[in-house]
Design a protein that fits this description.
By secondary structure, the chain is of the alpha+beta class. It has two domains: 176 residues, Gyrase A, domain 2 (2-Layer Sandwich); 58 residues, no CATH class. Helices cover 16% and strands 33% of the residues. The strands form three sheets. A six-stranded antiparallel β-barrel has the order 9-12-11-10-13-14. The protein has a five-stranded antiparallel β-sheet with strand order 2-3-4-1-5, covered by helices on one side. Strands 6-8-7 form a three-stranded antiparallel β-sheet, with no helix packed on it.
Length: 245
């Protein structure tokens, strides 16, 4: 069974839907179609946690990377105030696999190449998830996605992780301004890599800082780049790097 280091929280109570709708970057109404990929931001619009919302009868499950679970649970508790919601940590195990989702599982909403996710004991497969992430341009919690990240720079619009019509949520004003009033000058990009370098290695172009190289697989990688400097050959340690697309 293919499992990852995930924790599943459960939000219940009559206000569960409305409560999350006012906090997260995506439209909770999309749960009628399956999983919803979303994030909780800081009031300044920076990344705090990304997760999947999972329909569970009248409740909503939150599938989050285990290292972020404590902070997310604390934040939700603080935002709860007088809302009629319950919040608990479950023992649900997350499985994932490639291909068509088995019964009771859900397609990953970020990209079809990311397969499916299951919460009811489905048997997954031993896919090379880093390779698939690099191919699909999907950032990973704690690797490409860090507390300094802005979600639009991390491809959340392409990955179906943000909705610009749903109304207010924490950090919405900054995110909307980045969408409508500025052109992104930095962000996640797929690169070709000749050689290898440790995750987090600085990328330079003509002696100037051009970004950071992250996950690599099969001669390709994910990098955070300054687009104005990523126009030709670059280096990351001893590796040669070229932006794709």
């Amino acid at each position: 069974m293919s499992k990852s280091a995930r924790t599943v929280l459960k939000v219940g109570g009559p206000d569960a839907h409305h409560f999350l709708q006012g906090l997260v970057t995506n439209d909770v109404d999309r749960l009628r179609d399956g999983l919803v990929y979303a994030a909780l931001l800081t009031p300044q619009g920076k990344y705090r946690a990304d997760f999947f919302l999972v329909p569970d009868g009248d409740a909503i499950l939150i599938d989050v990377a285990t290292p972020l679970a404590d902070d997310l649970e604390w934040a939700l508790s603080m935002y709860k105030l007088r809302s009629k919601v319950t919040l608990e940590r479950t023992e649900v195990a997350v499985s994932r696999g490639t291909g068509a989702p088995p019964d009771g599982a859900f397609a990953d909403p970020r990209d079809p190449r990311m397969g499916w996710r299951g919460y009811h004991g489905q048997s997954g497969d031993a896919a090379d998830w880093d390779a698939l992430r690099v191919q699909a341009g999907v950032p990973e919690t704690g690797v490409e996605l860090t507390p300094d990240s802005f979600i639009l720079e991390m491809a959340f619009e392409r990955l179906n992780g943000v909705d610009f019509r749903k109304g207010c949520y924490v950090g919405q004003e900054v995110t909307a301004r980045m969408k409508h009033k500025t052109e992104l000058r930095k962000g996640l990009a797929q690169v070709a890599v000749d050689g290898s370098a440790p995750v987090g290695t600085e990328i330079t172009a003509e002696g100037k800082m051009a970004g950071t190289l992250f996950t690599q697989s099969g001669g390709a990688g994910l990098a955070y780049l300054r687009f104005d400097r990523a126009t030709g050959p670059m280096t990351a340690g001893s590796a040669k790097v070229i932006r794709q697309g």
